[in-house]
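Internal ticket - ligand job 234, adenosine-5'-triphosphate:
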Amino acid sequence: MLELKDINVSYGAIHAIHDVSLTVNDGEIVSLIGANGAGKTTILHTITGLKKPSSGIISYDGKDLIKTEASKIITLGMAHVPEGRHIFPSMTVFENLEMGAYIRNNREEISESINEVFERFPRLKERKKQLAGTLSGGEQQMLAVGRALMSKPKIILMDEPSMGLSPLLVKEIFAIIREVHRQEITVLLVEQNAKMALSIADRAYVLETGHISMSGDAKELLNNEKVKKAYLGL
Ligand code: ATP
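stdout (structure tokens):
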């Protein structure tokens, strides 16, 4: 469904991504793990059209994403929950959710979707009139996911959702990702928190300084000695 083939990306003289190939099939949770600066965000930005690769192929549902304008990619059913959440802090929870539906225009359906998000995340419903900037980190992440759901995506790309959150909130995020997946939405999860990312995923890729160094069944990677030493602190 989503396929990257031999992708190379540079920032000027810095060759950040080297011949990266990966696939995400319909209905899967696929994790991309790697240390700080490995290139995870760059890969997501390349998929969503924010950054153009110097070579390689990216296709989604048979469409060439490299030739698709970044602003059109969301209309193909792909939503991005960016690193740092990027919610609109001076808007309410409700308004943030409405913003997530900007590509849709049927008011009734939008309102139905908002209700669905509130059913999934009752905490957001309780806080619907609260300014988003005053939410806790975990609630902001919940809102960022809720906002992404408002575009009715088939696939969600999540960039380090656990970043900056306490272990308890990381568990909550974990539950949110499972919830998204229960709605038959495919997930590509980018994480530094390898333990979380591998335990939730079907398959995973390990990115090291712009190269895919390992890939396979997520549970097998969780038990892989190299992964344990390098990413799980064991
Ligand atoms: P983190 O977990 O810290 O967000 P990451 O795995 O997402 O890291 P990227 O942000 O994709 O890594 O960065 C990959 C490499 O590309 C790094 O060496 C980084 O310094 C470099 N890089 C990223 N953005 C830019 C930019 N706008 N200009 C120049 N170099 C960049």
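Auto-summary: The pocket of adenosine-5'-triphosphate is lined by residues 11, 14, 16, 34, 36-42, 83, 192 (CB under 6 Å). The mean pLDDT is 92.
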